[in-house]
Amino acid sequence: MAEPVTHLLYLHGFRSSPQSTKARVMAAWVQQHRPDLTWWCPQLPPSPAEAMQMLFDGTAHCPAAQTGVIGSSLGGFYATAVAEHLGCRAVLLNPAIEPARDLAKYIGETTAWHSNERFFFRPEFIDELRAIAPGELTKLERYFAVIAKGDEVLSWVEMSTRYRGCKIRLLEGSDHALSDFDADLPDVLAFLGLTLPASVTSG
To answer: pLDDT at residue 3 above 90?
Structure first.
């Protein structure tokens, strides 16, 4: 049985931030139930290469067997790369499969979802995404994908094919944002071995 996670990383999606609903749900759960965890939910830079360097540097000293990464959309793509690099567990929430293809239409100036901040998504970022793309997954048991058939942005078939053989929670409806994420949270926590401290459960 896998060791419980002691280091937990959350990666937001394209144009998103640590203020996303799912990120805030996870942060609140950690703060309320497991403040002993090492929790990191960084604001990722627009450059995929810079984002991955930040993540590799930030997890360099994390114990692989006790580290978990949760990634949503583009963050799921990054989470897969981190899991392959570090050898840790990863939860993918409607993960992007081919962001170099899908994000090409956003080249230029765009805005963040949770602020009025504008940023440039540069043409060279597409090549950076291609360079990051993980190959064949090395250990399928390392991954748990939550995939919504109702995703209006990404193809659930493509996501399911990419993570075939991994643990998958396939939702009949829902949406790209997983607006009903609270219902998925118990399975996410269980996969990461996250439970309430003994002092809480015994009380």
So the answer is: no
Residue with tokens 């996870």: 26
What pLDDT, on a 0 to 100 scale, did the predictor assign at position 110? 74
The answer to whether the Cα torsion of 1, 62, 93, 125 is positive or negative is negative
pTM for the full predicted model: 0.92
Beta-carbon contacts of residue 200 (< 8 Å; ≥ 6 apart): 33
Question: What is the distance between the alpha carbons of residues 115 and 93, in angstroms, rounded to a whole number?
Answer: 22
What are the C-alpha distances in Å from 63 to residues 3, 92, 202?
11, 20, 28
- Hey, what domains does the chain have and what are their CATH numbers? 7-14+39-167+184-196 (3.40.50.1820)
133 burial via Cβ count (<10 Å: 0-12, 13-18, 19+): middle
The DSSP secondary-structure symbol of 158 reads H
Cα dihedral: 105, 177, 136, 191 (round 10): 170
In degrees, rounded to 5, the angle at the alpha carbon of residue 191 between the alpha carbons of residues 92 and 41 is: 50
